[in-house]
Amino acid sequence: MNVTDVRKVAVVGTGLMGHGIAQVFALGGYPVAMYDVSPERCQQAVAGIRANLRLFQEKELVSAAEAEAALARLRPCGTLADAAEDADFVMEVVFEDVEVKKAVMRQLDAAAPAHTVFASNTSGLDVNAFGPATSRPDKVVVAHFWNPPHILPLVEVVKGEQTSDETLQLTVDILRKVGKYPVVLKRHIAGF
Q1: What is the 3-state secondary structure (H, E, C) of 6-46?
Q2: Which one-letter DSSP state was computed for residue 176?
């Protein structure tokens, strides 16, 4: 799979980082399914994105039409399975706990199509600790956005021992497509 094959993105975890990441992909032209264990947090994320886009309009970074189009691309979902069922690329942005990430990765693995790539926004956990929780560790990668993700362009990308070169390249390409500056690290460094 390459970047032109990516039609839909899912963001799992819509807190501080997740809502900004969803905004990045929506502004980049992707339909974005959003899920959070807290439905209220998911609705707050949409409201936060709306406020961010108003500020972007005031600063003339986006037009009103671009902001409205981005908002129209957001789809809050009631279940993780609903968010992942037709996603080609999933950003996992959940709590920084390896057991939580493993559990979410297993759920994503069960719900998403076989071709789907899972990118974790972890800031310090090793992809080798949670990627193998899936049946597709070759399709699991770290894509660590800097905070705030909708403003700062840098994203650290780290492949695991089993991550394929194709997954790494797809991740770099999609990040570039949405206006980010991906930097590929040669290995995991605790805490980045």
Answers
A1: CCCEEEECCCHHHHHHHHHHHHCCCCEEEECCCHHHHHHHH
A2: H
Known active-site residue 144: yes
Quote the crossing angle between the two packed helices 64-72 and 16-27, to the nearest 10°: 110
Contact 23, 51 (CB under 8 A): no
Q: What is the CATH number of the domain that holds 68?
A: 3.40.50.720
Q: Which one from 19, 115, 144, 188 is the annotated catalytic residue?
A: 144
Q: What's the chain's Rg over C-alpha atoms?
A: 15
Q: Name the residue range of residue 61's domain.
A: 3-185
Q: What is the pLDDT of residues 80-118, one digit of tens each?
A: 999 999 999 999 999 999 999 999 999 999 999 999 999
Sign of CA dihedral 163, 129, 41, 77: positive
pLDDT on residue 186? 80
Condensed to tens digits (0 to 9), the pLDDT of residues 2-28 reads 999 999 999 999 999 999 999 999 999
Say how far apart CA 11 and CA 14 lie, in whole Å. 7
- How many domains is the chain partitioned into structurally? 1
